[in-house]
Amino acid sequence: MARVLMKGTEAIAEAAIQAGCNYFFGYPITPQNEIPEYMSAKLPKIGGAYVQAESEVAAINMVMGGGSTGTKIMTTSSSPGISLMSEGISYIAGCEIPAVIVNVMRGGPGLGGILPSQADYFQATKGGGNGDYRLLVLAPSTLQEAVEITQMAFDLALKYRNPVMILADGFMGQMMEAVEIREHVSGEIPPRESWALGCMGERGGKRSILKSLYLNPEDLEQHNIKLQKKYREMEKEVRFEAYLCEDAEILLSAFGTTARIARSAINNLRNEGIKVGMLRPITLFPFPSRKLAELASGTKHVLVVEMNMGQMVEDVEAAVCGKAKVSFFGHAGGIAPSVREIEDRIRAIL
Amino acid sequence: MKEIKIYERPKAWAKGVHTHYCPGCGHGITHRLICEIIDELGIQNDTIGTAPVGCAALMYDYIDVDFCEAAHGRAPALATGIKRTRPDKIVFTYQGDGDLASIGTAEIIHVANRGEKLTTIFINNAIYGMTGGQMAPTTLIGQKATTCPFGRDPQLAGYPMRMCELLATLETPGFITRVSVARPKYIIEAKKAIKQAFQNQIEGKGYSFVEVLSNCPTNWGMTPVQAFEWTESTMIPHYPLGVFKNFE
Ligand SMILES: Cc1ncc(C[n+]2csc(CCOP(=O)(O)OP(=O)(O)O)c2C)c(N)n1
Ligand code: SF4
């Protein structure tokens, strides 16, 4: 496929189909409705299925069911919908079932607003549902990156048998950019006969039970230790972009759409001779703590910019661990930090 | 020639296990029926169950087929995802009355209304068994439970919900029936109904729903014999047995 101009939501949908996702379960919510709409038109034609669930609660449990048969499955929603899915996400993580969940974030708390936001960073990276579980969380900042991340997400979900969340925001969902979407061939993933439901015959009558219930406390502890070991293994999936960091005296840190804005501010300031760079986490879990610590030790100040009231900044502070001063600048959903505002903040720090 | 009948453990019953169910509980009887039917239909390698939250949460320990655990009330959505991605498999949900008629009301109505080609076994024991005998949406008027210690009062808690009748108002679902496991004569009918519900699925027909009037002697504060009698004398008059829909 050549480069074509596409809307973010549609690019994500088409990328998923090209990665082999033939099943989609979801419930409408702004600003991501183009994804289920796209899927409902395409999937029946390629032998898959689109089901409009009665709620996000049901949608995520359909995703769990689809994932439990070892099938590539996706759902997409926006913030209040993801809150409703949190119970199911905890079960999916506990039962070790692969699934891809996209959150096109909007402002909160509660009904909040329908405009873009990054206020679900905590929900995505720290839990949302009950128990000691983690999601692999990926945050694209261009549409081409969103395409690549969407396709990679299915492989990661199957490789780790874990839910993977893509954190986008309303800007990314609605903007148009030229993208190239290629058919994606999965790398090494465990064959579904090795664990999934529906393969009892292939396994010679040996069945599979997917569960998170361990009434015996020793068994529950062992299950959790196994999960934690898996989460540590995911560390090798850490991804980030270090932009003009080599000689930076001030380091910016931002993800997703906010990182695009920060990049423009950095370019302007560099033209004035101000040495500023950016560490942009692409994986929010695992978080690029080691790289941040390394970069921070060569700088005076780390400024974290987010489209929320200060969430990722806590992970940055923990990573930097006093090696540099950390400060925060942000706006709640709907208002994005502007290039000018970021430049002014940096100048004030100098 | 004399016919010899041997009462054997069904093949689909996991080897060497005994259930944790209380004496006289309807879960054990219904599990056995399901196992016999899986054997008779020859579908052990092709059946996928979803385990509920409730006393039957550990049913995968007893029935030897593929299983996925469901969150409380969500089994119909879970089973939808399984069946849509593996339409060649026989998928069933098995749910209590708290699970199906309370927390999972939305999921059960919509699985039936979409006409998912799967089977639901609904265990109505008029109480929350696992959590220790709280009131269920199916608790009868005047029946005592730990959260209605003076008996269910319709002024406060409404009337007991009849799920078969409710679902039968929908156009889509194919087979809806209510049976009991309180006496051998009912158990024979229950087995026929559950078998038909699985057979419908094998034939690729639409959604099948079997409500089983069950007992919870422990939380009803009765002996097993009293519980079977109470089912017959009190539950069946409120929850009439019979077929409410059969692909007409
Ligand atoms: C979200 C959630 N809420 C509440 C519970 C607690 N809980 C466990 S079983 C149960 C009720 C079970 O009753 P029923 O479905 O009638 O099944 P039974 O035990 O009678 O077979 C409840 C409320 C839970 N596990 N999860
Ligand atoms: S508590 Fe009631 S429903 Fe649960 S096993 Fe005992 S008798 Fe059966």
What are the key terms here?
heterodimer, A: 350 residues, alpha/beta, Rossmann fold, 2 domains, seven-stranded mixed sheet, five-stranded mixed sheet, 12 helices, 15 strands, 40% helix, globular, B: 248 residues, 9 helices, 7 strands, binds thiamine diphosphate, binds iron/sulfur cluster
Question: What does this 3D model show about the protein?
Answer:
The complex is a heterodimer of chains A (350) and B (248). Chain A is an alpha/beta fold and 350 residues long. Chain A has two domains: 4-236, Rossmann fold (3-Layer(aba) Sandwich); 241-349, 3-Layer(aba) Sandwich (Rossmann fold). Chain A has helices at 8-18, 34-42, 56-68, 79-94, 121-126, 143-160, 170-174, 217-233, 256-271, 289-296, 312-320, 339-349; strands spanning 4-7, 23-26, 49-52, 73-77, 99-105, 136-138, 163-169, 176-179, 209-210, 240-243, 250-253, 276-281, 283-285, 301-306, 325-330. In chain A, the strands form three sheets. Chain A has a seven-stranded mixed sheet, sandwiched between helices. A five-stranded mixed sheet of chain A has the order 10-12-11-14-15, sandwiched between helices. Chain A has a two-stranded antiparallel sheet with strand order 1-8. The longest helix of chain A is centred in the middle third of the chain and has 18 residues, at 143-160. Chain A starts with a strand and ends with a helix. In chain A, 55% of the residues are buried. By secondary structure, chain B is of the alpha/beta class. In chain B, α1 (26-41) packs across α7, α2 packs parallel to α4 and α3 crosses α4 (105-114). Chain B has one domain (26-245): Rossmann fold. In chain B, β5 (175-180), α7 and β6 (208-213) form a beta-alpha-beta unit. In chain B, strands 2-1-3-4-6-5-7 form a seven-stranded mixed sheet, with helices on both faces. Chains A and B meet through α3, α4 and β9 of A and β1, β2, α2 and α4 of B. Bound molecules: thiamine diphosphate (TPP) and iron/sulfur cluster (SF4). Residues 53-56, 72, 96-99, 123, 125, 128-131, 136 of chain B line the site of thiamine diphosphate (TPP). Iron/sulfur cluster is lined by residues 21-22, 25, 27, 55, 125, 129-130, 216-219 of chain B.
